[in-house]
Write the structure tokens for this entry.
Amino acid sequence: MTYRVLISDPLSEDGIYPLRQAEGFEITIDTEHTPEELAAKIAPYHALVVRSQTQVTREIIESAKNLRIIARAGVGVDNIDLDAATEQGIIVVNAPDGNTNSAAEHTMAMIMALARKIPQAFNSLKNQIWDRKSFIGVELKNKTLGVIGLGRIGAEVAARAKGQRMSVIAYDPFLTEDKAKKLGIRCGSVEDIIKAADFITVHTPLMKETKHLLNKEAFAMMKDGVQIINCARGGIIDEDALYDAIVEGKVAGAALDVFETEPFVDHKLLTLPEVIATPHLGASTIEAQESVAIDVSKDIVNFLNGGSVRNPVNLPSLSKEALAKVEPFFDLVDKLGVFVSRLAEGVIEEINIYYSGELAESDVRPLTRNTVKGILKRNLGHHVNDVNARFLAERFGIKVNEHKSTTPKGFSNLITVETTTEKGVRSVAGTLLNGLGARIVRVDNNLVDVKPAGHLLFIKHIDQPGAIGRVGTLLAKENINIATMQVGRSTVGGNAIMMLTVDNQVNEENVEHLKMLEDIFDAIPIDL
Ligand code: NAD
Ligand code: MLT
């Protein structure tokens, strides 16, 4: 199998070395296209790598018939339609750590350039004007820097600003007084920052909640002469309101690396001498570009070769250790899901998954996704995977509930998967046995011991002499060899089950013949 990878924004050549040297990977670099052109050419590719330039639209994603992974060589994923990717079962990964240092350094460079008007002075000198009066700056020492968003980059900026002897006040929904104290900064609300800061720098993602966070009302509350920095995302600051605040003299200067619409070349803000700007260069260093490209290249190779990824964006991420605890159960839960979906009659309304024993102490979300995937596979085939399983269940109105109990239920780990339809509840339970591998140990209320592999046949019958023999004779006549058989019953002469493993697939015709036999009232073939 050859995996085709399309790189649609410029990336570090050294950084994509892991992709270049991976066996069975074919790399295409094609960085010139409109979204429509990309939609037209995306179909053969299994992986798409972008920076912030390519807009990965729903149209592109829906045209990407073979796409399994979109990798963002950087942090922000606002240029990717995440909902569309999740719906199509495409995993999105990013490289959140590789450019933190570069973005923080760029922010500091912008703050210093802004404070000392370096770009304006240089521009004047380039025009052969020796002007020492127009470019009087301010010191950073003893000034207050307001940091909105104290994540990776915000925290690095705060630490560097302290080195400049600035006093730092920050707001982040996850910043506690305690943490702020340890960092040697103050913790405040956005309003506290707006009112107190001499310089305000934003480091949040662009989301509904942060769109135009700095707007007309916010500028009105700021100190006169405040200076504004945005090296995060265009749109966090309302550009029109910023323009007005500068023209009115409220804001003394602004340093911008990112803009509401990029490329940003013809905007009234660029006509103001108080504004300095760079064309989205925060992460543009040799080190950052190499680092993010290496991170996403490794994730693509691992993922397409069946492994896990380090930085999933549309799946909850698990540490290596947490993943190691649940990974051995992936195949079992998928099969329990397939099995129970074959038993369920009618429309599934609810799925309950019970984890008991040691497993209940682990983060079982990946197991729940894989179970739901197994259940939905019956109707959705390869359209469902662990990325979109929960989304699709929700779309179909199926409630998915996880239950955990550390009390062992006869096995050190037991997973019971239960479906509810209008016709009733069906369930299958399985475990991993030391040295023996996966086993299905219960079907509804019947104890069994079956390897979840190959062709299974689940039969419901009345416990009467001859019923087992009739099944054996019919299967022999239809050339289906029985490998193993187990029987169980609730009461003598009452309802009973047969659990068979057979060497060939049991088809619809075989099932009809089985159901016509005396005392046999159901036969369900399950291929695992
Ligand atoms: P991060 O996820 O580590 O940090 C973002 C922080 O924002 C989080 O701590 C989060 O809690 C906080 N936040 C969310 N909503 C908030 C709100 N309403 N108010 C205040 N804080 C809020 O991300 P990061 O790696 O530090 O990146 C920060 C930003 O910088 C992102 O927008 C990213 O895309 C951008 N970025 C830009 C460049 C560039 O080239 N200019 C480079 C790298 C990153
Ligand atoms: C990011 O979010 O990582 C930055 O926008 C850097 C980039 O890729 O240009």
Remarks:
- The pocket of D-malate (ligand 2) is lined by residues 51-52, 74-76, 99, 280, 282-283 (CB under 6 Å).
- The chain has 18 helices and 22 strands.
- The domain at 3-97+287-304 is CATH 3.40.50.720 (Rossmann fold).
